[in-house]
Amino acid sequence: MGWNCRRTRTMTEQITLEEYLQSRNGPSMHCGDCICKKCLYRWSGRCPYGGCWDDYRAEVDPYDAAHPDQPPRKWWSNWNKPGEQAHWCRGGCFYPVYYCPHFVKYQEQEHIVKTCLGENVSIFQDGYIQCSMVDSIGCQECYRRFLERMERDGS
User: Fold this and answer.
1) What whole-number distance in Å separates Cα of residue 138 and Cα of residue 92?
2) Whether 71 and 33 share a structural domain
3) pTM of the predicted structure, to 2 decimals
4) Taking burial as the number of CB atoms within 10 A of a residue's CB, which of 26, 28, 126, 152 is the most buried?
5) Partner residues linked to 95 by β-bridges
6) Whether residues 55 and 88 fall in one domain
């Protein structure tokens, strides 16, 4: 399926009133408005596409392959670098209504940082806990070290 700057919405897509009003003013001209920056999975490091939906889209459904009869788009720096024309959101053709299938709106006020066994962890709105110790040595080893430290310190 190809994407188009004038694509119409379906009932299942999520959008806020603010995003709708912004999209009426025209396309975004830079990555700062990218919808990925508003996604829970990007903020929690769990994005299945590595943090950029359009990078994935450029690989599996390149813009230039979907529009072979169109001239190269030249509205951004590095437009002539390899792979740039494959991206869909370059050159101002990226509206915030183009959500990836995994998009979940990030609720910053629901992101909590707490201390767990001496390490800071991030708890996200869906209950996911991001912990550097779990990622590096696992929960059981972290707990074992905590108990060892408590025994050593006499606490």
Assistant:
1) 43
2) yes
3) 0.65
4) 28
5) none
6) yes
